[in-house]
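Data availability excerpt. The first of two example chains:
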Amino acid sequence: MRNALPLRDNLNQAINLKALPDLAVWLDAPDISNLTFSSTKIDTIKNKGNKALGNFTQGTDAQRALYVRDGIKGMPSLQGRHDGSNASYYGLADAAALDYTTFHMFIVMQRAVDMGATETVVCKMSSFNSENEIRLLVTGGDTIQMAGTSGGTGGGTGVAATSSSLALGEAAIIEAFYDGTNLYVRKANGSFASVALASIYQGTANFGIFAFNASGEPSGVHMGELLFFTRMQNDYTRKRIRDRLKVKWRLPC
């Protein structure tokens, strides 16, 4: 039997993410060259997606994510709330490059702490401290949920699609997207959950990770990789992205 190609060779043959024009946000924890450290915590996470959006930064030590060398399947990850009290949070300021009428998102994550309540993993808010445009979260019931709203503060319709559960300690590739009619979310190898949504509101607040602001609904997940596209990807591209993540993270897709 032929041996499998080494990981690097497999990735070299995989899709070139940088060639995809709609990749707005790309967080890649194993690429240590894109991280600025403050002891074992992270001050800056370079956005490998659209450079015009800048990078994720956090100047307050208590709110910085922890760098975990063997966080997910022996690969480095960034952990959100990790000290039992402080919310980790990073945000990219709103910009035209974050505007979308459809979107697609992939995230490699592992639950490390059970907060016993809603945990925001990735979000973009319609206004700071207010309703979400989109929000990927772990519910208090341990399920994965993709939420969205069609209007700004105090308006529009808010909906959520709830996928299968993600157990404490479980790592998975999560895929979520909006096609202009419905929100979809699934844990890899599972079925998509969906909910109708006529449109998604375009707000002006940050694109955030690990919480919805400096303290709101913090998450203690390990985040290995995040890809956010400002347009829904076609089936062929989606499969190639999933295959790339599968090989790199040794996870089902």
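And the second chain:
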Amino acid sequence: MQSRRYRKVLLVLLIGIVFSTWMPERLNGFDQIVSHQTGRLQGAKMEDDNPSSKVLEFSISVPKNKYFRGEPIYLRGSLKNISGQAQYVNERFFVQDSDAAKVDWGIVLHIFSETGKQVDFGIRREMPGPSAAWFVAIEPNASLVREIPDDVSPFIGEEGKYRITAFYVSHIGPDIAGVDAWQGVVQSNTLTIEIV
């Protein structure tokens, strides 16, 4: 059942990627485009047959909303367990890509300029694969808070306002995690920052 759900999410993401290549020119307004793009994953994770949407909440924050061009921008991620039992999660908050279809674990970022253009980037790093040591339990109503160790300022570059939405992704099964770890995709809030 888990693999069927995973395939369904991947199909929705792939259709959304194809759709997004021509749709931004047809939509008016920054908010509509951001809503359309991030809605791809939100629609996939909020289906009735996907219990992962009722287990964890993911949020991001920044220390301030205005940055000078070239100034480092680090996000902080908070993963809250809203279920009634402990959840095992991957505590590594590395940005993996801007395309969730390519990611088995980590953080996916969607960054949009005020014109509605998605900032396209992909982080390719050599790192060891996930292991059981990466998983921790979050008790009910508790949160796991981590600084996301990737500076997002090189992806932005130009002056202006940007909206950032993050997705916590984990599709790592018990064969690697060593425990029955939570699997799914959770969308964060959307931040607006300005580069001056």
